[in-house]
């Protein structure tokens, strides 16, 4: 019996450190949940003095092997659909990472993942 596809719309805020850097690490709730993301959007709170860059990764670590896309508009906001085709699950690529650099210290950065999910 096939499982129904459910909407996936999850956000995770993080506070950028004193250097304007921060990392959001998003993952399914449990081993039976599988995400099929279609986009990842990033932004920070205003006012914006320093525009952050933001890199997106899909995998167990936020390293070059799992790099998906990057933006120089990590503060004012940007999104990528290059996450499409990745299955995020505890048994596969377990996390989506958004890694900001060079933003405003103390700003709240948010990563939002849109797509579908299934519970197996």
How would you describe the overall organization of this protein?
The protein has a single domain, classed as Jelly Rolls, CATH 2.60.120.1330. It is 0% helix and 49% strand. The protein is built from no helices and 8 strands. The protein has strands spanning 6-15, 22-26, 33-44, 53-58, 67-71, 78-80, 96-101, 108-119. It has a 4-stranded antiparallel sheet with strand order 1-8-3-6, with no helix packed on it. A 4-stranded antiparallel sheet has the order 2-7-4-5, with no helix packed on it. It starts with 5 loop residues before the first strand and ends with a strand.
Summarize the structure.
With 120 residues, this protein is mostly beta strands. It is built from no helices and eight strands.
Tags for this model:
elongated, 120 residues, 4-stranded antiparallel sheet, mainly beta, 8 strands
What structural category arises from helix and sheet content? mainly beta
In the CATH hierarchy, the architecture is Sandwich
Overall 3D shape: elongated
Tally of discrete structural domains: 1
Q: In CATH terms, what is the fold-level topology?
A: Jelly Rolls
Q: Give the SSE order as H and E letters.
A: EEEEEEEE
Largest sheet: 4 strands, antiparallel
Q: Rg from C-alpha positions?
A: 14 Å
The beta-strand count equals: 8
CATH class: Mainly Beta
Would you tell me the overall average pLDDT? 95
What percentage of the residues does DSSP assign to strands (E)?
over 45%
* Number of H/I helices: 0
Low-confidence stretches: none
Q: Tell me the distance between the termini.
A: 10 Å
